[in-house]
Amino acid sequence: GVFPVKSSDPAFAYDRNPNSIKSQDLTYSLSLKPTYGTAHCMGGEVGVMLTGVALFNAFDAWGRDAGAWEVQDSCNGHPQNKGEYHYHTLSSCVVDTSVNTVIGFALDGFPITGPRVNKDNYLTTSDLDECHGIVSQVEFNNKKFISYHYVMTQDFPYSASCFKASAISPPGNHEVPKRP
Question: In which band, very low, low, confident or very high, does the pLDDT at 137 lie, cut at 50, 70 and 90?
Answer without folding.
Answer: very high
